TrEMBL record:
Signal peptide (from-to): 1-20
Taxonomic placement: Eukaryota, Metazoa, Chordata, Craniata, Vertebrata
Annotated SMART domains: PRY (SM00589), SPRY (SM00449)
Protein name: B30.2/SPRY domain-containing protein
Location of the B30.2/SPRY domain: 53-248
Amino acid sequence: ISLEPYTFVCLVCLVCLVQAETHAETQAEMQQTIRETQEKVKEVKHSLELAAEHDSKSHGDEFRDFQRYAVDVTLDPDTAHPALRLSKDRKELRVGDKCLTFTANPKRFYPVIIVLGKTGFCSGRFYYEVQVKGKTSWELGLARESITRTGGIILSPENGYWTIWLRNGKYVALANPPVTLSLRKKPQKVGVFVDYEKGLASFFDMDNRSHIYSFTGQNFIEKLYPYFSPGRGGRDNSAPLVIRHVTGTH
């Protein structure tokens, strides 16, 4: 009786066993690799969470640092366009139904609807916040003392204005040339921070603690005044601009 067929069968079985063992080893290695990868993913996720927490704290510290330089800003009625209505405490402004009658005043803006803050600044750092909630149009920023206040006004640093605005649903920084801004959310409170000596004017969305725009490397040589315009009147833009009290104001 020949043993060759049995030998062949045994060899086949041996190959199957080897393949099965190899397959099992491969599966074990794959499972080990998967476990190691999962551990690495957990480590990376944890690192990212720590980094995000650190960034959040850093941004919080940064914004609190800005607010240390908060100043008490009030509106100057002598500069207000005749159509503007200012609150008694000079903290709110809106557009009225018609122009009021005022005595002639070289400080007053006309025909552009603008008002400046009462106090100008010519050194150091300062910060203020403005509520723009509910508005479809507004302008905020800074103006130097010697600006033109009558006739047509072109907002740009060259003309003494460092401003941003909301118009027709678009946010724009009035640089030269103007810069259209892409914002994640519609700001409800805008913070303005100025470092006079560094030539820096920065704008921030204070609700989500994000940067909006900065004018950098500016040459400030005159007094700078907070600048406000509530935009054109109308039912959809009737909400006032409100200068907010900031804790720590000095």
